[in-house]
Amino acid sequence: MFPYFFTFICSNSCAVAYSKTKTQSGRLCALVLLFFFLFIPSAIRYGVGCDYFEYRKMVDTAILTNKYMEFERGEPGWVAILYIMDIFNLDTQWFFIITSFFAIIIICSVFGKKDAWIGVLGYTLLVYNISYNIVRQTFAITLFLLGVKKFINKKIIVGFFWAFIACLFHKALYVMLLLFPFILITKNKYNKIYNLWILGIIALLVFKFNIATLIMETIIPNTGFAHYIAGAMNDKTGGTGLGILLKMIICSSPLIFFRYNKKNSSKTNREHAIICACSFFQIITYILSRQIIAMHRLPTLFLTCQIYMLHDIYYIKSKYRKIVFYSVISLLIMFFIYEVMNSPSGANGGQGLTPYRTIFEK
After folding, report:
1. Does 212 score more than 50 pLDDT?
2. How far apart are CA 32 and CA 104, in angstroms?
3. Mean pLDDT across the chain, nearest whole number?
4. Which range is least confidently modeled, 76-90, 143-157, 244-258, 318-332?
5. Which of 37, 178, 263, 269 suits 348 as a labelling partner, its CA being 20 to 30 A distant?
6. Distance CA 236, CA 348 (A)
7. Neighbours of 236 (CB within 10 A)
C-alpha cells in the first residue's frame, strides 16, 4: 500500500510546486519530478492490476502470430502500438511503458502551469490507480481529456479530432463521441434544478419498475456488452450501493450548488455547462450500472469530465465554492484509500493493486 500513498503525496506536492514556483528552473525541476513520480511506478510494475497477465498474454499472442487485429477487437490505436513493438522487437513490458509514458505526458501538460495541481490531483484520485488494471480504457479517456479541453475552449473541430483519436484506443469511447454533439448543443439545459427531478424519475423507473430487465433482455444482447450477460460480472449481489450513492452525490455537486453566474467569464460558464451535462449523463450510467452490471464500466467514460469538474468547482464564483471543492476532494480521498486497501491481487473484485511488485522482482 505504501507505494500508492507515496506516489500520491509526492506527485501532488510536485504539482503544487510546479503551479506555485515562480522561477523557470524551479518549475522545470518540479515538472520533471512530477513526471517521474507518476511514470516510474506505472511503467515498471509487474503483476499489478487484475488484467496485467491477461494483457501480457494478448500482446504476446498478437505479436507472435502477427494477428494484430485480433487484439481486443482490432482497435486501430493498439494495432499501431503492437506493430511498432514488433518492428523494434520490444519486450511485452513496453506495452505498459508506452501507455504510461504518453498518459503522464498528457496529464503534465494539458492543464498548464496555473492549474496543474488541480489536474494532477483529479487524475491521481480518479484515474491513476485504475489505470494499473483497465489499461486500454484509462489510456483512451486520458486522450479524451484533450478533446474536452478543446470543447471548452470552443475549438470544436480540434476537439472532435482528439475525441476520435481516443476512440481508436477503446470502442466504448464512441458513446462519448456521439454524445458530445448533443451535449454541446444542449449544454445550457443541465444546470437547472428540474434535472434532479428527471434523475429521480429515472432512478424510480430502474429500482421500482425494473426497467433494467427490459434493457437487459432487449438492448444489451445487440451490443458489445452482450458477453457480460451470462458471465460472472453480471452478479447483482456485489456491494451495498453506498459507494455508488456517494459517487452520484459527487457528480451532482455542480447541478445542486452552482448556476449560471454573470460574474463568471464566458469560458467558465461554458465549462460549467459542459460539466453539468456530463455529470447528468454520468449519474444515469451509475443508476443503470447498479442494476445492470454489464454497464459497470460506462461511468468511467466520464472520468475525464470529472477531472474538469474539480477545475470547474474551484474557479466558479460562488459562496459555496470552497466548501464543495474540499468536500468532494475529501470523499475522493476516502475512495482512494479504500481502493488501495481493498484491492489485493488475485481477488474477485477491486483493481488488484497490492502487493506492489516491479519487473525486478519477477
Report:
1. yes
2. 11
3. 85
4. 244-258
5. 37
6. 14
7. 10
